[in-house]
Amino acid sequence: MTKTYFKKDFLWGGAVAANQLEGAWMEDGKLPNITDVCVGISTNEPGLVWNNNTNKWEMKLDDKKTYLSHEGIDFYHRYKEDLKLMAGMGFKAFRTSIAWSRIFPKGDEDQPNMKGLKFYKDLFREMRRLGMEPVITLSHYETPLYLLTEYGGWGNRKMIGFWENYIRTVFNYYKDDVTYWLTFNEINNMYRRPVASAGILDIHPADTSDPLTIPDKIKWQAYCNLLIANAMTVKIGHEIDPSFKIGCMLSCSSVATYPYTCDPKDVWGALNLQRISNFYFGDPFCLGIIPGYVKRIWREVGYIPDLTDEEYDLIKKYTVDFFSFSYYRSGTYSKDVKNAFDTGGITGKDNPYLRYEAPEPWKWPVDPEGLRYTLNVLTDRYHLPLMIVENGIGLDETPDENHMINDDFRKLYIKEHLIQVNEAIQDGCDVMGYLYWGPIDIVSAGTGEMKKRYGFVYVDRHNDGTGTLERSKKASYDWYKEVISSNGEKIFED
Ligand code: BG6
User: Fold this and answer.
1) Residue from 335, 359, 332 nearest 346 by CA
2) ω into residue 361 within 30 of 0, thus cis?
3) Which of 292, 396, 402, 426 has its CA 20 to 30 A from that of 155?
4) Is residue 338 left, alpha or beta, with left meaning phi > 0 and alpha meaning psi from -120 to 50?
5) Per-residue pLDDT, 229
6) 93 in Cβ contact with 11 (< 8 Å)
């Protein structure tokens, strides 16, 4: 048997996000967050219209669309059953997020919604009771909608105060239940998808038919506000409980952006893409440094940073305890094509050296070595413990006549990625854990559909909203259980 190097206390498990599975979108005092008005965050048509009387954006859902996330997989009411299924695989950790608008429905209230607080208290305690360490994202594309429509979201400095109130509340309330906290999910997507990913809205728009265009100056102000908020989270968290471990969470498929050729233009372009897709947030979060190329962009777009000396110091001093990230696939940079982008990361020209890709219709390329590369780049740059909090494969699956799904492709995908994680550990990377994305079928973040299934557990719900919501195990369920119980040795079988 080949030797594995996963630590004894390696955090094996899975990850989800409140907005993709809880449902109960307007229950027990909760109000909408930004993703509640989007059928997938990649949408070009968020449910927002300009009201000429109030001169504000407001929610307007499209009755021709199915907002599957509103019911999700009804985790809000079925979490005990679902956590039991996760514990059945031997999960050591389970990642989910707090929907900010369950705690502060509009976002600017002084007092929290006790029903929301209680829900997560019960949830986190149940995780612990079943032996799973909660890994909790403070904001996973879940900025309360009111904060966007009323204040413009993160482009407004007032957000820092609303955020402080929120994090103080949850840190104090859950300090006996949670040790691992993640600040903003994939916040580095701010640059390309500012509204849904980063909770930013232009409330004085030049074009009132277009809520998605955000002027550069607003984006960069949001960036500064988010850097302050992140540092403040680390500071306040450690004041409340010095044993808290507070990490950032970035989408790191873009770290593995390979130059398509050795043409210096491709090499330079790939580096630039890594910077502006990734390191522009990673460096301030982990090193306390705002990179020179960011300041160059500021000069070019005419943005004058609204940051005091104290705030620069805060960013410098309060860097994160660990680095968590998602990795789905690698990409290429070629000067000849314009790179596109979705929840899996950057897409450019097809990489002819990769052996396979996921089946239709999503066809994400599969590059396990890209994960080893990413872990090594992050280690060389930040020298921090790393937690993989998203890696997985979405497939279109239908149970066979025996009600079974034989998801061999999923097993292969995980096995090959874990083999590369094992290599990276030998390279010297300090890997804390592997949380598979979507261990139970949930609503897709990018497209808002159920058809794109990541789970070890199948959920009977479909794109048109029909289905019994019944849960059943796929073939990968018992396999992943063995991966965990063998502390990874299983990946070298077969
Ligand atoms: C990440 C997000 O970008 O990718 C998750 O953090 C998301 O929320 C995951 O679900 C996979 O993307 P998708 O679009 O396939 O759900």
Assistant:
1) 332
2) yes
3) 292
4) beta
5) 98
6) yes
Which amino acid residue places its CA nearest to atom 10 of ligand 1? 445
Whether residue 1 is predicted with pLDDT greater than 70 in this model: the reply is: no
Q: Which atom of ligand 1 is nearest to the CA of 443?
A: 16
- Is residue 14 a contact partner of residue 132, using CB atoms and an 8 Å limit? no
Chain centroid to Cα 155, Å, comes to 20
- Total length of the chain: 494
Dump pLDDT digits (tens) for 79-117.
999 999 999 999 999 999 999 999 999 999 999 999 999
CA nearest neighbour of 220 among 309, 307, 303? 303
pLDDT at 387 exceeding the cut of 60: yes
Token pair in block for residue 216: 């550069």
Q: Which residue has the higher pLDDT, 346 or 400?
A: 400
Select from 137, 390, 440 the residue to mutate for testing ligand 1; criterion: most ligand atoms less than 8 Å from CB: 390
- The answer on pLDDT for 455 being more than 90 is yes
Tokens standing for residue 297: 């962009």
Q: Is 423 a catalytic residue?
A: no
Geometric angle at alpha carbon 460, from 454 and 465, rounded to 5°: 100
Q: At what angle do helices 292-301 and 216-240 cross, to 10 degrees?
A: 140
User: Which of the residues 133, 142, 390, 397 is marked catalytic?
Assistant: 390
Tell me the average pLDDT across 283-292: 98
Which among 71, 73, 84, 95 has a CA at the least distance from the CA of 13? 95
Contacts of 156 (CB under 8 A, 6+ apart): 221, 225
From the CA of 328, how far away is ligand 1's center (Å)? 9
85 lines ligand 1 (CB under 6 A): no
Residue 150 backbone zone (phi > 0: left; psi -120 to 50: alpha; other: beta):
alpha
Q: Which residues contact 412 (CB under 8 A, 6 or more apart)?
A: none
The whole model's pTM is what? 0.98
> Cβ(74)–Cβ(368) under 8 Å?
no
Task: Indicate if 22 belongs to the active site.
Answer: no
